[in-house]
User: Fold this.
Amino acid sequence: MTLSKDLSDKDLTFQCPSCSLTIVKKGSWVRTVSRFRCEKCLEEVRLPYGEKLAIFHRHKHLGRGGTSRR
Assistant:
């Protein structure tokens, strides 16, 4: 699994590890950001490559035509 460009314009969801806030960002944002500040708890959150892979894997059903298969 790679960080597919098919998901660049798709909304991907993941949670802040500190406060569990559900975060929704475009795939292109997830691919390029390595850290960000949570809007709720204001903690700086690292987004390492392994976590990005997991996020993209969970959303792979959205790529290539947007089918909803899981």
